[in-house]
């Protein structure tokens, strides 16, 4: 059909996607392949994201050098090592495990961060035992706000009405089948949506408890593993500072720091991908309703 003075048709390419072919304005009958604007926009967005990732890698490398050579030793000697010594002297392992479980279970309901508790779990119990303790606490931590918020559902809905974009993302989670709710909640957990706020706001979307719980536990795994990794790394740095002979060399410390930085960047990339998926779902919902 006509688009001003330019004729165009839609043809399928070899990949099965439709592309627009335009006639030349001079009427010579030649055609030009014109990429759909949404593809160009998407490519530009991912290019910008790639530049950001490269910048983060460079920044992480510089940070590793600064921490290993200058900031690390004073911080370890004056803050971290005394704190670890105090925790070790004050609590035995069963008591410490209970405290980690209790804080990760209760702090989300009180809108308090439980990251320090997960660090301590990584320092004291390692990956496997620390992960089990933390996930047991998080199971309670995401359950309490859900049931506490149920009686206040209408008030939360009125409050969310002031933030239409965030509300539209939450509406996605409450639509469709059990599996659809599971997928949507998991994507929201992985994406940079405020974690503590989401625990209460989700009740406004009429999400069922079982898909909410399972998706929440799956969605927080990357963050929990990364935080446990951070706790293990802090412990290694503290051991290296306390005993230079039995501790880690600077090269070993740098390798661990680079590994932690790479894990953090990978987590950020997965968070970004989840955010893009959520945005695509939100736009599809708007087109369907429109």
Could you explain the architecture of this structure?
The chain has helices at 37-90, 93-106, 115-149, 153-160, 164-173, 178-190, 195-201, 209-219, 221-242, 250-289; strands at residues 2-3, 6-12, 18-23, 31-34. It has 2 domains: 2-34, no CATH class; 69-289, no CATH class. It is an alpha+beta fold and 290 residues long. It has a 4-stranded antiparallel β-sheet, with no helix packed on it. Helix 1 (37-90) packs across helix 9 (221-242) and helix 3 packs antiparallel against helix 8 (209-219).
Topology:
Elements: E1 2-3, E2 6-12, E3 18-23, E4 31-34, H1 37-90, H2 93-106, H3 115-149, H4 153-160, H5 164-173, H6 178-190, H7 195-201, H8 209-219, H9 221-242, H10 250-289
Helix pairs in contact: 1-9, 1-10, 2-3, 3-8, 3-9, 5-6, 6-8, 6-10, 9-10
Pfam families: VTT_dom (PF09335)
InterPro entries: VTT_dom
Protein name: VTT domain-containing protein
